[in-house]
């Protein structure tokens, strides 16, 4: 409705000489909306070098199999209006009121001459008889019938060929759509499998991360008991003399220190394994996410391709695309790659689960062993403290008895001193008696003298 009345459009072939060789170039129709919306054509030249005829309409994106080309839109300028006449117009026969002169035709016998003599002379030179003329017409009719029959046969063959090619094209398009649908089903299946496995792997990685934090916490919790045990051993070196005994307490402390250090070593090795397993899980997770991203992209492309039909917008010619093969795998290797990634993720999850179980068992075993060593050490301390208290009590008791005995001895010493002092007067009496009896006249040794001497000797003893 927007076109001028006299505008005429043609689709034609223009022979253009390129390097002295004729080259047929297809020119597209000038669409009525191209002048208003500036829509471009996305067709590529099928063969031959690009035609240097004007501005090209570029394809929306470049392709690795063919350089970007285009076609020139050509508009045929309508002819100017001309009167329907020629130079063979007899102005005497033109009626009044007619805008143009009538067309006159030449004489068939004499050409442009109207002299009857010429017609009579031409009749003397006829070459064929009426029978020949009739026979010629019959042959012409027969030839026309033959050509029409052949043309009808060709038309029938053309109709059959068109129907056959249409059916084959439709069947091929339906089969391609069915194959794309099957491909979409396969991609959806593997994408769901990969997504499910990815969720399981992420959950397993989160649990393994919690286990790693628990192991780190257990490793940190072993530092205070080890420090305490070492401090106990250090302070027990301050004992004096005979108290430096290699007793059960010291043995328990040494066992506890060895157990704590061995537990730290085991937990450190387990922590290194968990860290490595987390790295492996992250690698498997990245592989799954990369595969899922590719599956999502391929699913989107195949979904769009599955929805395309003959009336879809954006369909174009892409010359040589059927000869370009960008594929890098086969359906077997494609599904095998996804299956391998899923199996790898499943293996990593199994290792992670086993590692979590080992970590839990090791943490419980370490906690039990540390608790047992701590209990044994505490029991040894309690027993040793009881022994020390008992020994101290006995020592204090003996000390008290000894001190009492010393007091008693000192008291008896004083009594002995008093007893010795008490013997002085009897000694004086006995010696005085002996001295006095020594002044007797006619001293004789009698029993009294002997007894006094014995008494003095006894008192001296």
TrEMBL record:
Coiled coil feature spans: 191-218
Annotated stretches, region: Disordered: 330-349
Record localization: Cytoplasm, Cytoskeleton, Cilium axoneme
Main location: cytoplasm
Key words of the record: Cell projection, Cilium, Coiled coil, Cytoplasm, Flagellum
GO CC annotations on file: axoneme; microtubule cytoskeleton; nucleus
Biased composition annotated in UniProt, kind: Low complexity: 330-340
GO terms of biological process kind: cilium assembly; cilium movement involved in cell motility
Pfam families reported for this sequence: Tektin
Similarity comment: Belongs to the tektin family.
Protein name per Swiss-Prot or TrEMBL: Tektin
């Amino acid at each position: 409705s927007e076109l001028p009345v006299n505008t005429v459009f043609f689709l034609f072939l223009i022979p253009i000489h390129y390097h002295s060789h004729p080259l047929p170039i297809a020119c597209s129709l000038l669409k009525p909306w191209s002048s208003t919306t500036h829509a471009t054509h996305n067709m590529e030249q099928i063969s031959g070098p690009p035609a240097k005829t004007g501005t090209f309409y570029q394809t929306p994106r470049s392709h690795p199999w063919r350089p970007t080309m285009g076609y020139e839109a050509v508009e045929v300028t309508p002819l100017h209006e001309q009167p329907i006449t020629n130079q063979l117009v007899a102005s005497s026969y033109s009626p009044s009121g007619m805008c143009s002169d009538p067309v006159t035709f030449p004489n068939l016998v004499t050409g442009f001459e109207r002299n009857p003599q010429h017609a009579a002379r031409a009749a003397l030179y006829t070459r064929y008889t009426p029978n020949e003329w009739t026979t010629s017409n019959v042959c012409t009719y027969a030839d026309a019938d033959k050509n029409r029959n052949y043309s009808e046969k060709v038309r029938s063959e053309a109709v059959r060929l068109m129907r056959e090619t249409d059916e084959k094209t439709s069947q091929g398009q339906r089969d391609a759509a069915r194959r794309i649908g099957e491909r979409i089903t396969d991609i959806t299946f593997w994408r769901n499998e990969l997504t499910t496995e990815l969720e399981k792997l992420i959950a397993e990685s989160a649990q393994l991360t919690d286990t790693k934090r628990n192991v780190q916490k257990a490793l940190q919790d072993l530092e205070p008991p080890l420090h305490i045990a070492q401090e106990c051993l250090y302070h027990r070196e301050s004992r004096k003399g005979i108290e430096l005994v290699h007793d059960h307490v010291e043995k328990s402390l040494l066992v506890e220190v060895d157990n704590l250090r061995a537990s730290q070593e085991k937990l450190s090795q387990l922590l290194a394994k968990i860290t490595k397993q987390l790295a492996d899980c992250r690698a498997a997770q990245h592989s799954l996410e990369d595969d899922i991203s590719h599956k999502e992209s391929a699913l989107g492309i195949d979904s769009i391709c599955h929805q395309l039909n003959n009336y879809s917008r954006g369909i174009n010619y892409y010359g040589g695309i059927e000869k370009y093969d960008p594929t890098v795998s086969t359906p077997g290797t494609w599904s095998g790659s996804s299956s391998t990634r899923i199996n790898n993720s499943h293996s990593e999850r199994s290792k992670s689960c086993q590692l979590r179980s080992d970590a839990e068992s090791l943490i419980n075993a370490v906690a039990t062993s540390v608790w047992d060593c701590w209990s044994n050490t505490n029991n040894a301390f309690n027993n040793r403290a009881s022994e020390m208290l008992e020994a101290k009590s006995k020592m204090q008791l003996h000390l008290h008895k000894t001190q009492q005995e010393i007091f008693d001895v000192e008291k008896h010493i004083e009594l002995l001193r008093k007893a010795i002092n008490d013997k002085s007067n009897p000694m004086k009496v006995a010696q005085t008696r002996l001295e006095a009896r020594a002044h007797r006249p006619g001293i004789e040794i009698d029993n009294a003298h002997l007894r006094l001497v014995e008494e003095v000797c006894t008192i001296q003893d």
